[in-house]
Amino acid sequence: MSSLVRVYFDQDADLSVLKDKTIAVLGYGNQGRAQSLNMRDSGVEEIIVGSIRDASWEMAVKDGFK
Q1: How high is the pLDDT of residue 58?
Q2: Can you tell me the mean pLDDT for 50-57?
Q3: Which pLDDT does position 41 carry in this prediction?
Q4: d(Cα 14, Cα 33) in Å, to the nearest integer?
Q5: Residue 13: closest CA among 43, 49, 47, 45
Q6: pLDDT of 13 above 80
Q7: CA atoms lying within 13 Å on the CB side of residue 43
Q8: 32 C-beta neighbours (distance < 10 Å), count
Q9: Which residues fall within 8 angstroms of residue 44, CB to CB, at 6 or more apart?
Q10: CA angle 27, 41, 12 (to 5 degrees)
Q11: 15, 38, 42, 47: most buried, per Cβ within 10 A?
Q12: Which residues pair with 24 in a beta bridge?
C-alpha cells in the first residue's frame, strides 16, 4: 500500500486571506512562539498572544506581541 505525500511550497500559500484579520495564538511555549514569529516574519500584521503571566508571557511581550 502506497501513501500519497503532498509537498507545499511558499508559492502555494495565499496569505492575502489573513489581510486585515487579527490572529490569536493561545500559549507561547515552543510551538506558540515559533508559529507567532513565523507568521509575523511572513507578513501577517495583527497577531495577539494569550498566555498566563509567566516566563512565556514575558517572552511574548519582549518579542513585541500584545
Answers
A1: 96
A2: 95
A3: 94
A4: 22
A5: 43
A6: yes
A7: 9
A8: 19
A9: 15, 18, 23
A10: 100
A11: 47
A12: 48
Which segments of 1-66 does DSSP mark as H helices, in order? 30-41, 55-62
Q: Is the pLDDT of residue 57 over 90?
A: yes
The x, y and z cell numbers of residue 31, run together, are: 510551538
Helix axis angle, 55-62 relative to 30-41, nearest 10°?
A: 10
3-state secondary structure of 30: helix
Contact 65, 42 (CB under 8 A): no
Q: What pTM was estimated for this model as a whole? A: 0.79
Q: Tell me, what's the pLDDT at 10?
A: 85
Q: What are phi and psi of 50, to 5 degrees?
A: -105, 120
Cell numbers for 18: 489573513
What contacts 48, CB < 8 A, 6 or more positions away? 22, 23, 24, 25, 65, 66
pLDDT at 62 > cutoff 90: yes
